[in-house]
Amino acid sequence: MNQINYDRYSRQMLFPPLGREGQERLLAGRVAIIGLGALGTVSASILARAGIGFLRLVDRDFVEETNLQRQVIFTEGDARGFLPKAEAAAARLREVNSGITYETLIEDVNYHNIEDIVSGMDLIVDAGDNLEIRYLVNEVAVKKGIPWIYGACVASYGMTFNIIPGKSACLACIFGDQLPHLTETCDTAGVIGPIASVIASLQAAEAMKILSGNLEYLNDKLRYYDLWENRFNEVRIERKDGCTVCQRGIFPLLAGKMKCQATYLCGRNMVQVSPAQKMTLPLEKIEERLAPLGRTINNGYLLHFTTGQYELVIFPDGRALVKGTSDEAYARSLYARYVGA
């Protein structure tokens, strides 16, 4: 890390609960932000500006024009270049605060890699786009004893809750052991930018309390906001007796025993196809093969291929996002036809 310039944090250090000691704790803090969408970009921006010393930015996706309405870090240039969200976010944040460390992971979060992703972290900020990822984060956080901050939003409403393993309720205490069925997603209900900024700002404030050692100021309630209908509610959530995760220490998602039938990718007609085993794809060779069949763009991080009404975004780890269909079987057939892995 570069030599610390405390002047840039002077207004923050004037705030009595922080001061010099609190700022030094923030600068020593290590945070993983899971997801760089609407919530994650706001959280990352606030935490970088606050001087959190190490930010691990994790996202499997790339920037699209439809993201720009609510994902505050990205630009039209990022979308034109099909840049991975993690890399685009890190590049922008380095322009904001070059005195802290950023690590980017362009990965699909799953039970194979989640323990490595959170390794060495003091805190996890949830900004994922589906409940399976959140349940997985909940399990690994409880297992490893890492605090995490749940956050979610859709349409004009959102929720957030601090989860401190061994002290607070966990996500399974709130929603049950099984993955709940969602009735609304960004695909069906849309989402407005202000609610993402509100929920992410609340998450960032709680993160600063945890990292600076101000645990007595933590909010211990599940908070709900609807900015359009002007509703706000707080509910105290107690630890559930016999909770599978935080009481009994059973982690079915981490063990690969419970999988969601579909992954919801917010705001588009898209299916993610993942290989059965870990692999490394030679994007240059695949580009040579696909170039005669359609339009290809290889930016070094991913290969974007357009053919007719379909788009495939192919990553080096073997994943592909297939845009233009919601049919999982057909998406897999397109993957087999063009990627062949």
Would you kindly provide a written description of the structure presented here, covering whatever features stand out?
- Strands 3-2-1-4-5-6-7-8 form an eight-stranded mixed β-sheet, sandwiched between helices. A five-stranded antiparallel β-sheet has the order 9-13-12-11-10, covered by helices on one side.
- The chain has 341 residues and is an alpha/beta fold.
- The protein has helices spanning 10-13, 19-28, 38-50, 76-80, 85-96, 114-118, 131-144, 171-175, 186-189, 193-212, 283-290, 328-338; strands at 30-34, 54-58, 101-105, 123-126, 148-154, 157-163, 221-226, 231-236, 270-273, 295-298, 303-307, 310-314, 320-323.
Brief summary:
With 341 residues, the protein is of the alpha/beta class. The chain is built from twelve helices and 13 strands. The protein is 33% helix and 20% strand.
Produce the secondary structure layout:
Blueprint: H1 10-13, H2 19-28, E1 30-34, H3 38-50, E2 54-58, H4 76-80, H5 85-96, E3 101-105, H6 114-118, E4 123-126, H7 131-144, E5 148-154, E6 157-163, H8 171-175, H9 186-189, H10 193-212, E7 221-226, E8 231-236, E9 270-273, H11 283-290, E10 295-298, E11 303-307, E12 310-314, E13 320-323, H12 328-338
Parallel strand pairs: 1-2, 1-4, 2-3, 4-5
Antiparallel strand pairs: 5-6, 6-7, 7-8, 9-13, 10-11, 11-12, 12-13
